[in-house]
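Chain A, query sequence.
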Amino acid sequence: MNGKDIGLIEPAEYHFYQPLWTLVGAGVVPKEKTRKPMSELMPNGVSWIRDRVQSVDAIAKKVACVSGKEITYDY
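Chain A, predicted structure.
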């Protein structure tokens, strides 16, 4: 991706399309129709980091995850 590494920190296995929830509540659409695996939605060239952010140190440009992993970034 233009020489850039892009990472997305997201622990959820599934994405739920919230705009359809009003139709789910009305009984028009089954809730299963709002769910897709995150793996199907990840754009090419994006690294999916399945973790949860614990803290962000903007000065050091570092993200600490719940797992103990630290990720540094440029932007």
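The chain has a mean pLDDT of 93. The longest strand covers residues 53-57.
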